[in-house]
Amino acid sequence: MHERHAPAVHRFVYRHFTLRLPLSQLAGLRVPLLGINRRGLMAVHERDHGPRDGSPLLPWIRAQLARNGLAEIADGEVILQTLPRLFGYVFNPVSFWFCHDSQGALRAVLAEVSNTFGGHHNYLVAHPDGRVIGPDDEIAARKLFHVSPFLDVQGTYRFRFRERGGFLFVAIDHADDAGETVLSTRMSGRLQPLTGRSLLRAWLSSPLLTFAVIGRIHWQALRLLVKRVPFVGARPSSRPATAPEASSIPVAESST
């Protein structure tokens, strides 16, 4: 769900599915219909994430956690939540890397954001004191990357993550520099075992999933133009993420 609050109200809801993959098991994962670094009806390629060079993802995220002083507390499983390639094509507006401690508690989340101009940026968020991220906790990070040509690169993202009773919920609110919420985004769904049968059901429910994502982005952009929402620009420059903020830990990589 996306809901824009200003300068015009604009809301839409779409049904889709994502995969949640434990990175410690990725290399040996064998699920019918799903290819890992190979072709399949659905596929997940390591070159689509992290350093985007095809290298293993787990050492990369461990290095990002260590760089930001989180390696000792986020020393457990890392789960990548992402859209799969479908018939070889994928566009991921955002993938989430859920970083847990050895007891299974959530300690950090990396939000891997992509725009339609080929750019990528990572927001690594955690509590400044490293405590467990609770279901009602809100963690803020400065917006540093251009996503929508209808929004300036300014303001703050406010993240919330909740997993309870097999139900997953992610909220991202974008507030402007005055603190007013201009955009609300929600993702929610029920967890299911990753099997060939569940993948087939998911595909049948959204047979053109990744193609539909990019199509819907442009359709909603057209609707915003009709509503006369100001067009900021096709590709404004974004500021690099360099230093931690008081309430977030942005990963120390520049946007590309």
From TrEMBL:
Annotated segments matching region Disordered: 234-256
InterPro entries (alphabetical): DUF1365 (IPR010775)
Top-level division of the source organism's lineage: Bacteria
Pfam families linked to this entry: DUF1365 (PF07103)
Protein name, UniProt field: DUF1365 domain-containing protein
Species of origin: Viridibacterium curvum
